[in-house]
Every structure is written in structure tokens, then in C-alpha cells.
Specification:
Structural class: alpha/beta
Bound molecules: manganese (II) ion
Distance between the termini: 76 Å
CATH architecture of the largest domain: Alpha-Beta Complex
């Protein structure tokens, strides 16, 4: 079998080689060792003992062009021309509009997978974000088991906390990529976060070092430079809004090169991000609830690395029926306890015909468990309040974080993103802020300034609501 050394990982114990090989017309990626030092791009043959041997240089160009041709064929055969049709029919039109862009990004992605290039995948740490990672993982597994053989991919999964791609994130990604030498440029895949001008600090550091695929569904802020990237894909660019979740987008991406079943992931992402296209069908959404719990409290998924979660760990839980049930029960119990105590310590302010509810999450949290996280809990708490009050606006704060939740109908008139923008301009101490029109969050520079920011938010909402009344 003729091979090219396509990627070398430098580890403290030595070098680990990835070689792309061709046998007839079939391409495979192998991970192996070598008796001698090989360099990236060099031709090699695989010996019977499973070790790589440098091969004679004369044939190398012929091998390279056969592999290039094999890779191009493989990609061409895998990309699906017909846009994926989900059972959420109202979203299918947007998928069709995005299909060309999705397929182009998928071609790039498959090239990286085939060559075993370093791929860093950052996904947001919530249900929707976990859905993006899980969809891509399942797609890659399917591709590596059916369309070509791959023993190991050089993929690094990072569950990302926060809403922007910062300078520190970029530096950390560059450090990771520095562990590899690769014939293909490393790939950075960003999903379900980052569409804000704060990411403008991180992007310039990585845009020449990585090929970037960015799948997001947050509103695109003016001046956000990520939009210029060739493979930045967001439903907002196609006349849709955040109701097309990032997990759903990742499923569409995956379906452009794989035919795996993605319906349950699509459903979980719609549920997780409160999309109006979610179809409550009377069935519980256990998959989403499990993702909610394990992305909040990663200990439960027995993560190797504290605070991180990989799709392989999600998979291990899904395959274990007992563990699944245990986790689902635990989540339900915890949630009802926390909702109960929240309703007892919440404060209420009237604003026109609406009411603003403010909760200090510190008062209801548990020392032991990270679940539920304040941001996501806010959405559930708003639902709970909504059972008895129609016009409720909820603010939950915890440490340096403030989350604001508004019911659908009020989102358009309140424009909380504008209020957050004003708070930033007033220099009240807002370090970062953004989100959707119904769900947004703020990080303040210091806990001490939080009460000023809270007061500003409450006053601004009151003002908006009373002006709305007088119109
Ligand atoms: Mn999302």
C-alpha cells in the first residue's frame, strides 16, 4: 500500500504518524509508527509488521497524484446534491437556500478528515451546542466507517463557555495546532457561538493559520468580521432568524455528506433553544434533558478533563440505558427543587402592564451540583412564572453574569439587545453582552458594578414598557 505521511503529532513520548494510503481506488487513513524519522508529505509504504518505511522517491509524485485524485473522487461521491429535508418542514426552505454553502464547507471538512489534518472543534456549552458536536461526531464516524477507513482522527473537542471567540481562545487553539505538522492546513470548526464584535479580537490571530468553518445562528452584529470568512454560515444570511438552531444547522451540514438519521438531534436542538418550530408531540425530550444536565455538570459524564465534554462521552451515556435513566431522574428532581426555592426568593417590580422578576441565583444554588446553570434555568423559570402571569420579564443574576429572558410576544417591542448595547455605551461596567431578542446575557467586569447594571436594565425596561403603554 502506498502512503503519504499526512500529519505528524508531536507528543512527549515521540511522534505519532497519520498516513493517507491508497489501495486500488480506495483511500484509508492509518495511524502508525516508523523505525526511521519521516517527515510530513513524504511517501512511505506500510510494511507487514504495521510499521511505515520510507519509499523510493521516484514514485512519490505518482503516488501523490493518485491520492489527490482518490481524495477528490471520494469527496465528490460523498457530497449529496439534494438538500436535506427534515420533518420540520418550515425550516427546509432555509436549508435549501444554504445547501450550496453547506456542501462547499462539507467538501473542505471531508478533505481535512481524509488527510487526518488537525481539527479543533469548539461548540457552545448548552443543549443546542452539544447537538452541533454530537451531529458532527456521528457524521464523521459514519463517514470513517463506510466511505473510507480511518483508524484515528486528529480531532480536539472543546466545549466552549461564553459567547465570543476571544484572543485567549485563539492563542490556545494555535498552541494545540503547534503540536502537529500536517500537509493540510488545520481546521477550526466553531459552532453555536461567537457572532459578536468581541470575536473580532480572536479571529485575526487564527484566520491565516487555520481554515475556518463557522456554523452559528446568533444575530449578526454590525462590524463582526467573521461574516467575511468564506465558510461562515448563518441562517440570518438567508432571511431566517435564530429559530433555526445551530444544532439543526450542524445536522444539515452533516446531511450534506452523510445519510445518518439526524431527526432526534434536530428535535433536541429546537427544544434546547426554544425555537418556535419545535413540535411538541407529547413525547418527552430525554436526549435534550440529558444534554442539558451533562453540559451543566460535566462530572456526571465522567469527563477526563475537568469542565470539558466530548461527543464520545455523550455517546457512552446514550448507549447505557441505566445511566440514561438515572441522569434523567436526577435532572427532573433537581430542577423542581430549584424552581420551588426560586419562586420563594424572587423579587417583582411592575413596569406598565408587565412585571419584571429578578432572582439572585446565589440564593437558590446548591454547593454540590452545577445543575441547573443560571442561564438555562432562567428560561425554565420564565416558563414557570408564565403559568400564572402573562407579561413577565425575567432577570437572573449570578456572580458576574446576568441573564434576561422575555416571552416571545414581548421580544420585538422590548429590544433587550438595544438595552444591552446602551448599557455598554454608558460604560457601566459591561464586559460582554448579547444573545437573542428573547434570551440575552451580560457579563460585568466586576461583581461590584452589577447592581448599577441591574438598575439600568430595570429602569430601561420600565421606560420601554410605559412608553409602549402610551403609544
Ligand atoms: Mn444556539
Amino acid at each position: 500500500m502506498e502512503c503519504i505521511i499526512s500529519c505528524i503529532k508531536n507528543t512527549p513520548t515521540g511522534k505519532s504518524y497519520s498516513a493517507i494510503c491508497i489501495d486500488g481506488s480506495s483511500i484509508s487513513l492509518i495511524e502508525c509508527k516508523s523505525y526511521s524519522e519521516l517527515s510530513v508529505g513524504e511517501c512511505a509504504t506500510l510494511g507487514e509488521d504495521g510499521y511505515l518505511l520510507a519509499s523510493d522517491v521516484d514514485n512519490c509524485n505518482a503516488t501523490k497524484s493518485r491520492i489527490t485524485e482518490g481524495v477528490n473522487n471520494r469527496i465528490r461521491l460523498s457530497i449529496r446534491k439534494e438538500a436535506h429535508q427534515s420533518r420540520f418542514t418550515e425550516l427546509n426552505k432555509t436549508t435549501s437556500l444554504m445547501w450550496d454553502k453547506l456542501s462547499k464547507a462539507a467538501s473542505l471538512f471531508l478533505r481535512k478528515v481524509l488527510y487526518g489534518a488537525p481539527i479543533i472543534i469548539r461548540f457552545h456549552n448548552d443543549i443546542d451546542g452539544a447537538c452541533t458536536a454530537y451531529a458532527v461526531y456521528k457524521g464523521v464516524v459514519d463517514f470513517c466507517n463506510s466511505d473510507f477507513r480511518s483508524e484515528k482522527q486528529n480531532m480536539v473537542w472543546i466545549m466552549h463557555r461564553g459567547v465570543s471567540y476571544s484572543q485567549a481562545d485563539a492563542s490556545s487553539d494555535l498552541l494545540i495546532a503547534n503540536n502537529y505538522s500536517s500537509v493540510e492546513k488545520p481546521l477550526l470548526l466553531i459552532m453555536d457561538f461567537g457572532t459578536s464584535d468581541e470575536s473580532n479580537k480572536g479571529i485575526p490571530l487564527v484566520k491565516d493559520e487555520f481554515d475556518i468553518i463557522w456554523l452559528d445562528h446568533h444575530p449578526i452584529e454590525d462590524g463582526f468580521i467573521g461574516e467575511e470568512l468564506e465558510h461562515y454560515i448563518n441562517p440570518w444570511q438567508f432571511g431566517m432568524d435564530s429559530n433555526y438552531p445551530a444544532g439543526f444547522l450542524a445536522c444539515s451540514f452533516v446531511r450534506s455528506f452523510s445519510s445518518i438519521e439526524t431527526g432526534y438531534i434536530e428535535r433536541a436542538s429546537l427544544y434546547g433553544d426554544y425555537s418556535k418550530y419545535y413540535l411538541p408531540d407529547g413525547e418527552k425530550n430525554d436526549f435534550a434533558e440529558i444534554l442539558d444536565l451533562i453540559t451543566s455538570d460535566t462530572k456526571l459524564a465522567s469527563s477526563q478533563q475537568l469542565g470539558n465534554l466530548t461527543p464520545m462521552e455523550i455517546d457512552a451515556i446514550l448507549m447505557n440505558k441505566e445511566k440514561r435513566e438515572e441522569i434523567a431522574n436526577y435532572a427532573a428532581t433537581r430542577l423542581s427543587e430549584v424552581l420551588y426555592s426560586a419562586m420563594r426568593s424572587i423579587k417583582k417590580y411592575s413596569a406598565g402592564t408587565s412585571s419584571i422578576y429578578v432572582l439572585d441565583f446565589e440564593k437558590v444554588r446548591d454547593e454540590e451540583s452545577r445543575y441547573p446553570l443560571p442561564g438555562r434555568f432562567s428560561s425554565k423559570l420564565l416558563d414557570k412564572i408564565g403559568e400564572s402571569v402573562t407579561d413577565a420579564i425575567l432577570i437572573v443574576h449570578f456572580g458576574k453574569y446576568i441573564s434576561i429572558r422575555v416571552r416571545d410576544e414581548a421580544g420585538d417591542r422590548l429590544r433587550i439587545l438595544d438595552i444591552i448595547k446602551n448599557a455598554k455605551e454608558r460604560e457601566l461596567g459591561v464586559e460582554a453582552g448579547g444573545g437573542h431578542k428573547n434570551a440575552a446575557s451580560i457579563k460585568v467586569v466586576d461583581e461590584a458594578v452589577k447592581k448599577d447594571v441591574l438598575k439600568f436594565l430595570i429602569d430601561s425596561i420600565k421606560l420601554k414598557e410605559s412608553s409602549f403603554l402610551s403609544e
